[in-house]
Amino acid sequence: MQQTMMPKRRVDHARRLFFERGIAPTGEVPNAILQSWQRCQRMGLQALARPDIEPVPETRLRQMRESREKLWRLARAELDTLAGDAIATGSIVILTDEDGWILDAEGSNGFLDKAGRVALMPGACWNESHVGTNAIGTAIVEGNPIEVVGGEHYFAPHGILSCSAVPIHDPFGQLVGVLDISGDASVPHMHALGLARLAVAHIEHRYFDEGIADTQLVRLHHDPALLGTAREGLLAFRDGKLVAANRNGLQLFGLDRGELGRVSYHALFEQSLSKLRDDGVLADRHGRLLHGRLHEDGDDARPRRFSSRPITVSSVARNDSAVAPLFEPERETELERARRVLDAGLPVLVLGQTGTGKEVFARELHRRSARAGKPFVAVNCAALPEGLIEAELFGYEDGAFTGARKQGSAGLLRQADGGVLFLDEIGDMPLALQPRLLRVLQERELTPLGGGKPVRLDFALVCATHQDLERLIDEGKFRADLYYRINDHGVRLPALREHADRTRLVRDLWARMERQQRRLTEDALAALAAYPWPGNLRQLVSCLRTLVALSEPAGTIGLDLLPAYLRTPAMEPVPAQTPSMAALALDEMETRAMRDALQACDGNVAHAARRLGISRSTLYRRLGSDPRGSRPPN
Fold it and tell me: Whole-prediction pTM value?
């Protein structure tokens, strides 16, 4: 019976159990809400009372704002952006300090008046100890983003509110404030938390843009396209210690803010920072290749590009002359087969490591297909903002959620109508969103968020990923039914190290991009061909373009112009590995890394899995027995 209750009825039932009968309603409300209720009860707060929230005088508020000037300045752009959208959805955007004192509140005048009746206004304090369970105060206690909707608030008069709050931390991990989006509880605000998360990521990013004294600032991401955005990881080192980092930087290595100042550089990275400075890539202790930039103290720490929008491309055609023609006979055969499948209305799944040319393959497939000349819409599922991916893909009606554009949005799926939709990194699509994508693919019909008439869709589908989707299915991270829906025809693009004749490949690439008679010496050509190129075709093309930029027309390019990682003595050609040999070597490296992590964590599987960025089940499966024949310890 309880499982069929509407959310409001379920919360009302939970309140009766807790406040009237003294029973903890486990499972009826989120754990964070229940724990907050219990804290408030221990503090002696009376849930039916009207809390006394008296805003401070204007002079005191002005002093508070002046003392938090940096926070207010760095948050100003996000407040303005969100406030403009909030006006259309009857909500407000709130900035508080680290103790829950409201510094600013903007948005809908109508809801500002309503919020004033519960003292949700500048100068009021919404710390949990003052006003019970609420998004601002509970986010401060929990240290995590949180939503508190209607009756989940401790005090009954606050049941009119729906609030979503995200803590703001400075680069050193100190809480400096909270950003909150609040609206009427009777109106759905399902994307408010996603918008607040994105805004806080931008604010925290700006703290680093102002520079951190006496440090080396590293910007990192698996995808070079995301460098300079709020999605990049930021790490600052001083005297070999990690002293500052943003949320994404910590997540890259499974760290928390309490470890800042205690973790050494060499505990995270195998290679020195000079590698990043010279090559733009850096391998960590687990062998993951990360793209990045290094800013020494005194450099301009601001990124060269910054975008709050997802990385998406919509075009009729785009051609990379350096890469697109390089389809060998076996690739030509695969392209022709994939074209026939696509023209038959069936989806194609392209598999391959980062940098192997999955999007290039997809674009060439589009160019050769019956839908050439129609839109090609590329969507990087890993780059869409968390919490907004559904709205970006499926579109929404006017006022569908907090922050929605007034005129609504058609969504990316509708932009691909008549053409080809390319879902890149589909393995990173949130699990909760996969059923809706599956339904759209099955029915070829879309209903925008917020209602409206269903829209018929007509597009061909190409998906790509570097992930092992079958492994993700085993781990419960990817739906098997979606996998079989998108994998009518699979194409695997080999890693560059598996290429049978890298010397010929380098020559062909060079000939296609160089038009001013520059020449590679035999030594330089041999060094380029011998390197295994962990970043695959993308890294090789980038290297060749850099060589063009560094040399003069009609000049000769020798070893001296090559990047440092290629200028090693006695460079011998590396024999091409067969796919099975490469897979075996990679498998051995992964297994060794897992055993090393397990040993470093004193046999604690949970800690080792977190350190490796994998699930415990994966670690158990790969290390099913230790050298003595027993399962790894917990």
Answer: 0.54
